[in-house]
């Protein structure tokens, strides 16, 4: 299970620079897209209701996601899920810690690139002698 989660998170960050728990759950088969869409549309009371894993397994999956993100030094970012004016719930009782775990997206740090020269800037010539004028 850990390897599947790790691979899913890596794929997501490669595609879009962040990984979201709900998307990981869909990737590994613990959540169907149609069930997720129904939850996003406000037709499901809470996301765990339509997941194909028990609460213990879901908690374990969320913990693995946190650990993978920490190992890769990805930044956590809380995301609020809403349908119209309704804040969507992930868990039956709305426990703040559980809600936070599901709503945390992990943002990969982009590699630093050397800035490109300005379009009108002359190209640097390393063999040219410095101008004294």
Describe the secondary structure blueprint for this structure.
Layout: H1 2-16, E1 18-19, H2 21-27, H3 33-40, H4 55-71, E2 75-78, E3 82-83, E4 86-87, H5 96-103, E5 104-107
Antiparallel strand pairs: 1-5, 2-5, 3-4
Helix pairs in contact: 1-2, 1-4
Explain what the structure shows.
Helices cover 41% and strands 11% of the residues. The chain is of the alpha+beta class and 133 residues long. It has one domain. A 3-stranded antiparallel β-sheet has the order 1-5-2. Strands 3-4 form a two-stranded antiparallel ribbon.
Tally of DSSP helical segments: 5
Structural domain tally: 1
Number of DSSP strand runs: 5
Rg on CA atoms, Å: 22 Å
Largest sheet: 3 strands, antiparallel
Cα end-to-end separation = 67 Å
Task: Output the strand order for the largest sheet.
Answer: 1-5-2
What percent strand? Answer: 5-15%
The residue ranges in which pLDDT falls below 50 over 5 or more consecutive positions are none
Query: What is the global morphology?
Result: globular
The H-and-E topology, N to C, reads as HEHHHEEEHE
Helix content: 40-55%
Q: Could you report the average pLDDT, rounded to the nearest whole number?
A: 87
Class inferred from helices and paired strands: alpha+beta
């Amino acid at each position: 299970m850990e390897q599947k989660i790790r691979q899913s998170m890596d794929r997501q960050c490669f595609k879009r620079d962040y990984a979201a728990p709900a998307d990981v759950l869909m990737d590994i088969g613990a959540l169907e897209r149609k069930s997720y869409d129904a939850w996003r549309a406000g037709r499901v009371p809470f996301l765990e209701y339509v997941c194909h894993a028990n609460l213990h397994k879901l908690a374990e999956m969320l913990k693995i996601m946190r650990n993978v993100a920490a190992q890769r030094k990805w930044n956590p970012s809380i995301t609020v899920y809403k349908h119209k004016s309704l804040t969507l719930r992930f868990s039956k009782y709305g426990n703040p810690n559980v809600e936070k775990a599901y709503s945390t997206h992990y943002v990969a740090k982009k590699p630093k690139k050397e800035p490109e020269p300005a379009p009108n800037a002359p190209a640097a010539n390393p063999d040219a002698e410095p101008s004294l004028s």
